[in-house]
Amino acid sequence: MRNMAKENPGSNPKKLESLIPRNEFVVVHLLVVLLMGFMSVSQGRFIVTPTMQRGRDVPAMYVLGDSSVDCGDNTLFYPLLHRNLSLYPCNGSDSSLLPHLLAEKMGLPNIPPFYSQNGSIEELLRGINFGSAEATIMNPSSQNYQSLNQQLRQVFETIELLYLQLSQRSVIQFIRSSIFYLSFGKDDYIDLFLRNSSGALLEYSSQEFANILATQMVHVIRNLYNLNARKIICMGILPLGCTPRMLSLVSDSNNSTNGGRKCVEKINKLVLEYNAMLNEQIVELNAELPDAHIVFCDVYQGIREIITYPETYGFEDVNSACCGLGPYGATIGCLSMEMACNEASSHVWWDLYNPTKAVNSLLADSAWFGQPFSGICRPFTIHELAAASVSLPSHNHLN
To answer: How many domains would you assign to the chain?
Structure first.
């Protein structure tokens, strides 16, 4: 894997292309976007990169992830094929999710889903949400949602499109100044516990499984770096054992209880293994890759703090979903917004696995400024990441 850092697949599209699985539907979609982009140029529309022209340190954010970044809007046939998740996994829209709350703090416009693009180069420069509800790090057997590698291919082809219409130096400056946000792993563990469709539980120990996931994340970070990404946020997995769905599936005798606050610690232990491995490897990447600014954000730590001291942060219910039916509101997920509780802000959990906007807002504040939960993002806050300067290659290294 270290040999990849010595090459630069970003300057050799064929090399990188061989590393990423192809998705025929994505290719067709990008061809349509490409055609529309050329049409916009042929019609005389003047394209200007937004880098440093909007008075922002970060011109755009590109999001890759699972149900922690997508409410289903970017997942093909989601209303019919939402499998383990709720029909409405967010309390309102994507704007209630962590990456969008952080984008708002950066002064960025709403980040559109990949499949809702209008094909213009201007929209590509605004940032894109490649994330897909139920997306996994390991390649899925189902094709109704995009795995981590499939989303990486979408990023690769989007950047190719930028190179076709803008100067090489402009694109490199834009990509290096933009932020790439990665949030994966939750749905891999959900799949592992509920369905074991990947067969991983039979083949690997918990430590081996965590190592496979963390290694794949590092592989993607290296590929993004080779595409000239320099500012990267990598999110850990939330305390999955405290979610309503896991509480409903595991008998209370196996749950830890603290003043009525319950969690399945054997599940949390597995998630913590992955978080620790990913954090350690990100420390190594920051030391190894020149000019890299890679931040690990420990959402597990923040949510456990809320669950332990709910009154301090204004929460009343730390176990049950705001929207759902059955024990802990988790036998049936959120099928309609009319099913939701009256005060979502008093609940930690919105549905089976996802926190409410109130929780995400606290996490966004902590990730941005380090308060109220200090140190959840390391080695520095997202505010410091956004303000970090990045170098540009000399003219001798540009075509």
So the answer is: 1
